[in-house]
Write a structure and sequence with these properties.
Four copies of one chain form a homotetramer.
Chain A (H helix, E strand, L loop, with lengths): L1 E5 L4 H10 L6 E6 L8 H4 L14 H4 L4 E4 L3 H13 L4 E3 L8 H8 L12 E2 L2 H4 L8 E3 L3 H10 L12 E6 L14 H4 L4 E2 L7 H9 L6 E6 L6 E8 L7 H9 L5 E3 L17 E8 L4 E8 L3 H15 L16
Helix pairs in contact in A: 1-11, 7-9
């Protein structure tokens, strides 16, 4: 099957091309972009060794694909998705355009939603929403932090008090994109850790909405000195038997090819998922405080973006969900 | 005045020597150590350019000093401090030996306290316990995480619900000491972030005890890929008027030479305190959730260890508290 | 075909397992080790998600394999290779045991060679020695620095003065292995660069011998603060027409799937080959000085170790040389 | 004495302010800048904790100072220095404006020199040109690479063949300044090493001219993944008795407060000079090749820029040369 990738100049676009180069069933037919139209792929992505050029991001050029990945800013996705959906081309959108209900989007993005009939789209976190993916017209691929936070939170539904949930996020700089910014200058970033964006980071309502427990959470992201890798550390107060926590995680993820729940007492490390579509979780029940802490690590560009998009595309297109996705990480 | 430094082979010992080299009133008369006795300072600390050798850590050799810094593991501090205190030599202990009440120590360290009459000693966080320092016989210099967490928490006393406080910690690797360990291997640590130690990290009861609000907190530390720097990010539920938060921080730290509260909406960065005895705080009240988030950054080896020890020693010895301590950081 | 991997506890062993997991024709039948015999692969390599256990490194258990990779220290390779070769099992040795003539080995390793009849083995740098690989009984997989230095030097043979060649090496810490050492402590390694090993690094005679121009080179390696990636920067004095340099590199590598010569004036970056079996070269002729500088970057664990071993194994076993090897790098 | 600092928004300007904050005899009276005029120092330099604002870079406002530091691009230095010199205000220029003879400057900078009567100024490398500094009107503070390369080369004059000298440079990203550039994006820079600028880096003629041996050198700089720290590794062919090398270095630097020659066989590490005005040198004579390799490490912003400027200013103004400059580094 042929696929298109739009937004080829960013990190998620490059990661889609890296992963699709090893995919046995999906072939990249077109790489499209606005700002980079005409550029050689070899110059844009010296790490990929690909031939060809970027073409303009024109729905007409994309509609013949069996699926299209939009690795574009949300404004561009809002512009492109409706025409593709209307043409019957399955769309995997990696932006925040279609992850939230219209009114929540308007509140957190500060603008009315430009395609309200399409939002919220099917939320492409296969471990939690697998049954809605086959044949979906439009998939909102989750944000990086929500992916990790929701994998940590999902098994806790019904076991913890929805009020008072705290999520600490730690992410490498690639999560902030490839644009030039003072706070992404290498000399600033080496040896530096800093919170940012709280309490109005747009991933906050995404976590709240898709956990669906009806209470606001507090989410504080921090940037850490590395290019890729992400941790979401969730703390919540138990309302159920603490002995139910372990089994809930085993049941939730026992058969999942991409999710590993570590043995009791062990915490995961982002280095162990680098470059892979995997999530590792550590779970600790603290009888002293009556709280549970769950940490989930992912590679923000793979399970947190491009890998998850391909996993969702596999499901949409009727392929085995794990097709073409690496479970072995690049370590050290 | 002459001071002694015991435990000269570790990072905190080296940092004491670096800072004392620029101190106008305190002169290092003796550097003592057990494992490194006899070694040249130049070989142990190639970055300091010091003459002299390490002598055995014998209380007799130290008692003539006007003050002694113990940058030793807690077991060594428990052995050395009683004799020095008995000899009337002020002791600044950087270990966890004397920070907790006897029974709390026993619970978290898994051993009975070997010098119960001396614990808890005066807690050497000058911004919070300044009045008890002049003339103190034994000062327990706070741990790195507790320093940052307590500076973040102290102004919140009375404004938040003591139950449900969550502290996320992020620290560079130097906080784990200079000993060789698999998880401190450079190849593992580059590009890696991981939680560790939770929920039984020994800094947990230290934060609880010295905040003194009577409720357990949840503390989850993470190691981040850099040598020094630390963030404590505190989340708590407001019980008072949200408008009281800002003034509480201004009042608490308005005149402090080492503590800066950032303007509304700004978050601190560890790079801005590297090598300095400073703490930077960012505070965000979230009306949507009714919670407050406070992040405090320090250099774990300076304000989190050696710098704070010297600040406390200045107070103990009657010197102006800021004497000899850098407020300008090494950036970038 | 079935292969065995010995020395599964190190970085090169892990990288072999990562790459072989994606190889369509080679299946890992046995992972053997001395120190780690009995350990679960899942515990040794949390990043790989593999089932099974390490078995003792017994030639009998390995001889049924179609090929065996030795990712072992040279002493272990010297012990294992003769029996495997005698049994007719092709051996790919990643250590330095069989890369040098007997007497050169003795000089630089400070010990007589324990299997002189087998050394030097076929040198497994396919781009330069492709014709000797099919059916080889024992392949000495090149060292990481020699791989990069020889790819940079080979096209210069006949164009430069063999005397006076200078090679600067820069490598991430994984090149030093996974053993615990003071200079590999994370807190020391972050933000640190240092030369090491010169002028007696064992890769020096390997570069000299396999370039084969008969003059000693000066090689100075430096460790740089990252886990993987390596640069060899070669400087030599031109004796031929400077205009011959560019075409020599085009001719040497024009059809190579893993070697890219960058456009004039461009220098390569290690980040662009991370995790891939690729080498990128930059070439600059300096008419002012009459010298040429060539920089070659590789991932020291892939093209500098495990990837190259598999590339050589493909050739030994009659598979297309590029089978199963990634050309797309993990960037950023 | 009062000094002015122009170009306060860059890394060298910030480092001047950090070091001058601890200087007992020099007080910063004015911080001037073009682009940042009017900005609060506290906002520009959150790591310094300074009061005051940047004023416009007007020679009139600066001429009353006892000395002025120009931490400006070379074009700005060319504009400001003549008026200050004419007014009799000693100038310490950290740019490349006055380091080269007029015609060499024109060749390498691609523009005629705008103030040819002033170039080359007194070259402010005190260890090599101390006698010309007292009372100097204009000092060209050396570049970072030339500082390290010249400290490594100077003792070799007369002992090596001036032809065929090769210098490998390795520098952290702060050497490239604080401007935003694709190759200084954090996500690109983490875990990345790359040569750059060769063979036309402007520090090349500076090394050649100030070594003064009349032969071209080959200089290849590399960027390494850290914010500060620099190595220059020099290789040259011996023409004198190899036994003369060690004594030459001892004699050259035996009494220098900022230069340490390491024991035989030891190589220096940039981490050991971080934040300090020190240079560490390792020297290895290789009898096998007849060559000598010398590596010199410095902090590019201290001994390679701001610290050296202050060291030179001390000499110009008649203060003890080491006044106010740290010899203890921030390690780890």
């Amino acid at each position: 099957m042929d696929v298109g990738v739009v937004g080829g100049s960013g990190y998620a676009g490059g990661e889609l091309l890296r992963l699709l180069a090893g995919h046995p069933a999906l072939k990249v037919r077109v790489v499209a972009g606005q700002r980079t139209a005409g550029a050689e792929l070899r110059a844009l992505f010296p790490h990929l060794g690909l031939d060809g050029r970027v073409v303009p991001a024109d729905p007409g050029a994309l509609a013949d694909c069996d699926a299209v990945f939009l690795a574009t800013p949300h404004a561009a996705s809002l512009g492109l998705a409706p025409a593709l959906v209307a043409a019957g081309t399955p769309v995997l959108d990696l932006s925040g355009a279609f992850r939230l209900p219209e009114e929540v989007f308007a509140d957190w993005y500060g603008e009315p939603h430009a395609a309200p009939a399409l939002t919220p789209a099917v939320y492409g976190l296969p471990e939690l929403h697998r049954d809605r993916l086959p044949g979906a017209a439009l998939v909102a691929v989750p944000g990086c932090y929500p992916t990790a936070a929701l994998l940590a939170l999902a098994p806790l539904a019904g076991l913890v008090d929805p009020a008072g949930v705290v999520v600490a996020g730690l992410s490498g700089t690639s999560g902030a994109g490839s644009g030039l910014r003072e706070d992404l200058h290498a000399s600033h970033a080496f040896g530096n850790v800093a919170p940012y964006g709280a309490p109005r980071h747009r991933h906050t309502p995404e976590i709240e909405h898709h956990w669906g427990q009806g209470a606001p959470i507090t989410f504080t992201p921090h940037v850490v000195p590395m290019a890729r890798g992400l941790v979401a550390t969730v703390t919540a107060t138990l309302t159920a038997d603490p002995a139910a926590v372990g089994p809930a995680f085993c049941e939730a993820y026992g058969g999942e090819p991409f999710v590993t729940v570590l043995p009791d007492g062990a915490w995961p490390a982002t280095a162990h998922v680098r470059g892979a579509n995997t999530a590792h979780l550590g779970v600790a029940v603290d009888l002293r405080t009556g709280r549970v802490t769950v940490a989930c690590v992912i590679d923000n560009l793979v399970k947190g973006a491009a890998g998850q998009a391909i996993q969702a595309a596999n499901a949409v297109l009727g392929l085995p969900e794990a097709t073409g996705l690496p479970t072995a990480a690049v370590y050290p």
